[in-house]
């Protein structure tokens, strides 16, 4: 899971930290603000596991009633941070917070757009979409797909009539229909064979990220320190030795960070060029916009 390079950085980080703490400046203590009980419990579980192992905990935890309260806490208190997912970015930005560290995940499956091999360009432009709108990831991809086809994904009224069908689904669930050969449609008007999903997909999400209040002073040194403690979390609390922070917790996946997190970067990595602005457009530039099947207009196939 952990590359030698990451391991090396971590060892370097620990040595540096030891050096700093023996010298003038001690590494500050950073506190994670959680706003649901499962996240708080998971955070406390790391603290407990660290104590039992006689280690310094990479996490310190504080719990608040709801997200708004956490955003305020991060603004008001030094060295506090909050981990947010894609749907929280806009509210956090509006509160003046900034993302500084981005959780990198290992992608094992992809959302793909499958079309009959002999689909024409005109048919592509007019095709309806077969997508499970309850699958949030697939739905985001369908929005991205339609946005790239030039559709208004925040329409007042739907339009357009019936035509060929494009399936938007998880590559793990893809099975070819018996009667037609398929291809994958890629963003930016290319196509690929159906086994090329790692290179030709419509994934359209943002990373979980650490948000802080920069106006209060969050210089690069602090970002490095905080990142080091998160790498400590990733290296030591991933199931190999102590409590597994990157696993389902009380039956819930992806609490705080995604299960399949493999790194922490100081630069975001956008999939398919979907950055915060485009993601915002796909969500009608509203914080906490609720995904709505109506956004696909009558491009959306109804399964009955
Ligand atoms: C932690 O320290 C205590 C006493 O200081 C010791 O009894 C215990 O075995 C240590 N635990 C581990 C996992 O090293
Ligand atoms: C968040 O919690 C506070 C304190 O309990 C409450 O006053 C506020 O209305 C809540 N905000 C939201 C958006 O639920
Ligand atoms: C596309 O191919 C299928 C068979 O795979 C055929 O039934 C259909 O008529 C073809 N459509 C066009 C527009 O060529
Ligand atoms: C993480 O969640 C996935 C489902 O999303 C699950 O299959 C897996 O076992 C969980 N744990 C780890 C360590 O990946």
TrEMBL record:
Q: Which UniProt keywords apply?
A: Signal
In its keyword annotation, does this UniProt entry include Transferase? Answer: no
The organism's superkingdom is given as Eukaryota
Q: Which PROSITE patterns match?
A: TRANSFERRIN_LIKE_4
The cellular component terms of Gene Ontology attached to this UniProt record, alphabetical and capped at eight, are: signal recognition particle receptor complex
> What are the Transferrin-like domain coordinates in residue numbering?
30-284
Q: Which GO terms describe its biological process?
A: protein targeting to ER
Which InterPro entries does the UniProt entry name for this protein?
Answer: Transferrin-like_dom (IPR001156)
Secretion signal span: 1-23
Q: What is this protein called?
A: Transferrin-like domain-containing protein
- State which gene encodes it: LOC6903512
